[in-house]
UniProtKB/TrEMBL annotation:
<protein>
    <recommendedName>
        <fullName>Beta-glucosidase</fullName>
        <ecNumber>3.2.1.21</ecNumber>
    </recommendedName>
</protein>
<dbReference type="InterPro" id="IPR017853">
    <property type="entry name" value="GH"/>
</dbReference>
<comment type="similarity">
    <text>Belongs to the glycosyl hydrolase 1 family.</text>
</comment>
<feature type="binding site">
    <location>
        <position position="20"/>
    </location>
    <ligand>
        <name>substrate</name>
    </ligand>
</feature>
<feature type="binding site">
    <location>
        <begin position="402"/>
        <end position="403"/>
    </location>
    <ligand>
        <name>substrate</name>
    </ligand>
</feature>
<dbReference type="GO" id="GO:0005829">
    <property type="term" value="C:cytosol"/>
</dbReference>
<keyword id="KW-0378">Hydrolase</keyword>
<feature type="binding site">
    <location>
        <position position="395"/>
    </location>
    <ligand>
        <name>substrate</name>
    </ligand>
</feature>
<keyword id="KW-0614">Plasmid</keyword>
<feature type="binding site">
    <location>
        <position position="291"/>
    </location>
    <ligand>
        <name>substrate</name>
    </ligand>
</feature>
<dbReference type="InterPro" id="IPR017736">
    <property type="entry name" value="Glyco_hydro_1_beta-glucosidase"/>
</dbReference>
<dbReference type="InterPro" id="IPR033132">
    <property type="entry name" value="GH_1_N_CS"/>
</dbReference>
<keyword id="KW-0119">Carbohydrate metabolism</keyword>
<dbReference type="GO" id="GO:0030245">
    <property type="term" value="P:cellulose catabolic process"/>
</dbReference>
<dbReference type="InterPro" id="IPR001360">
    <property type="entry name" value="Glyco_hydro_1"/>
</dbReference>
<keyword id="KW-0624">Polysaccharide degradation</keyword>
<feature type="binding site">
    <location>
        <position position="164"/>
    </location>
    <ligand>
        <name>substrate</name>
    </ligand>
</feature>
Length: 444
């Protein structure tokens, strides 16, 4: 194997989300969000809540110190909408803005570039009660929220991402009910939620750009190449349909202002004239969250008649997700070929495993180290082949509240003891730190 190198200005860091790490859900005027309600209604598999999580709200200086020691120079975090606007609109909570002031100032002092995401799933419950992402009425409130946060932080935060994984919000939150807010509205619920997120995103991008110059504006999409389980025509159709739903509605919406042809008839009832231009925006950055390919087969009775096929891979993560690093290379090459080679940041890439704490308190997570090594090889190959990749942010800095799985799944490169909140860097933390500091990936 050869030593693989990265550009000298490549960004290295980690990603987190507010709801998964902050805790302090009833502190400083924060309002309720859909995940608070979802957890209170007993939908978290291990019965836990995010009430404390990693207590990042109070322990952020320690977490920033960990990033600095690793040699990271970038950090993607999300703003908690209900901390800023407790009811989603109207009164602004100054203590919420003050927290993100402190966080951003501390990051800059540590030499870490703050990259803010405005929406990572914690929709204020009062907005959900008014229709949430099923209603076009959410477009204005999201744009107002974006304007308020940018007015406070844009003098120091130059990188802004509007949404995180709108496809996951739509499919699992509104289609099949496995995530908050827990609706089972099927195909139409999914497509409405996707479309309204696209419209809100476009409005927010324009709202920020109208008032601030010199910013890098974009969004974060979970993109997973959809491949058919077999060459049977019905499986090929299922994969094409799932690609349209999972990847293309969000990607083509912001990049092209288009509805995928396969879905045009199904979305005709709520797409209005002018929506294409409202969705499209010449973004400066495209955040990509990649975990695996989606292998799809024809399955009547499933949404869009697309079911999960048999993934071809040698290993699986603790989430039972296939490990397919070559899919990341293919994805980056596709973006270069079909979308004019946009500036891409790997905004999430990581894995959960059942970590074992050694008698001396260390965590030797060899499976996670191998996962990161293989995916970084794919990124380095893509950069070498001309893909415009600007940075790599692992998921995640900390073990955290993993949505419907609660505290039972650990994605962090730093272990969190949920009883004591003690942070313990894992071998994967040291591995990524070494790559970040050297800018190269040496043979194993």
């Amino acid at each position: 194997m050869e030593t693989l190198t990265f550009p000298s200005d490549f960004l290295w860091g980690a990603s987190t989300s507010s709801y998964q790490i902050e805790g302090a859900l009833d502190v400083d005027g924060r309002g309720p969000c859909v995940w608070d309600t979802f957890a209170a209604n007993g939908h978290i598999q291990d019965g836990s809540t995010a009430a404390v999580a990693c207590d990042h709200y109070h322990r952020y200086p320690e977490d920033i110190a960990l990033m600095k020691a690793a040699g990271f120079n970038a950090y993607r975090f999300s703003i908690a909408w209900p901390r800023i606007l407790p009811t989603g609109t109207g009164r602004v909570e100054p203590r919420g803005l003050a927290f993100y002031d402190r966080l951003v100032d501390s990051l800059l002092e540590a030499g870490i570039r703050p990259m803010a995401c405005l929406y990572h799933w914690d929709l204020p419950q009062p907005l959900e009660d008014r229709g949430g992402w099923q209603s076009r009425d959410i477009v204005g409130p999201f744009a107002d929220y974006a304007r308020i946060v940018a007015a406070r932080l844009a003098d120091r935060v130059k990188d802004w991402m509007m949404l995180n994984e709108p496809n996951v919000v739509a499919i699992f939150g509104y289609g099949v009910g496995e995530h908050a807010p827990g609706h089972r509205l099927g195909e139409q619920g999914i497509l409405r939620a996707l479309h309204h997120q696209n419209l809100a995103q476009g409005a927010a991008l324009r709202a920020i750009a109208a008032e601030h110059g010199g910013l890098t504006l974009g969004t974060v999409l979970n993109l997973q190449p959809a491949v058919p389980d077999s060459d049977r025509p019905e499986d090929v159709r299922a994969a094409a349909m799932w690609d349209a739903v999972w990847n293309r509605v969000a990607l083509d919406g912001v990049m092209k202002g288009e509805i995928p042809a396969l879905l045009a008839d199904r979305m005709a009832g709520f797409v209005q004239p002018g929506d294409g231009e409202a969705m499209r925006y010449p973004i400066d950055l495209l955040g990509i969250n990649y975990y695996s390919r989606n292998t799809m087969k024809h399955e009547p009775g499933r949404i869009f008649e697309a079911g999960w096929g048999e993934a071809r891979c040698r290993r699986w993560t603790g989430m039972a997700w296939p490990v397919q690093p070559e899919g990341l290379y293919d994805l980056l090459c596709e973006l270069k070929r079909d979308y004019a080679n946009p500036a891409v940041y790997i905004a999430e890439n990581g894995c959960a495993y059942d970590d074992v704490v050694a008698p001396d308190g260390t965590v030797h997570d060899a499976e996670r180290v191998l996962y990161y090594r293989e995916h970084l090889e794919s990124v380095a190959r893509a950069v070498r082949d001309g893909c415009n990749v600007k940075g790599y942010l692992c998921w995640s800095l900390l073990d955290n509240f993993e949505w419907a799985f609660g505290l039972s799944k650990r994605f962090g490169i730093v272990r969190v003891d949920y009883d004591t909140l003690v942070r313990t860097p894992k071998d994967s933390y040291r591995f990524l730190g070494a790559v970040a500091k050297s800018g190269r990936l040496d043979p194993a």
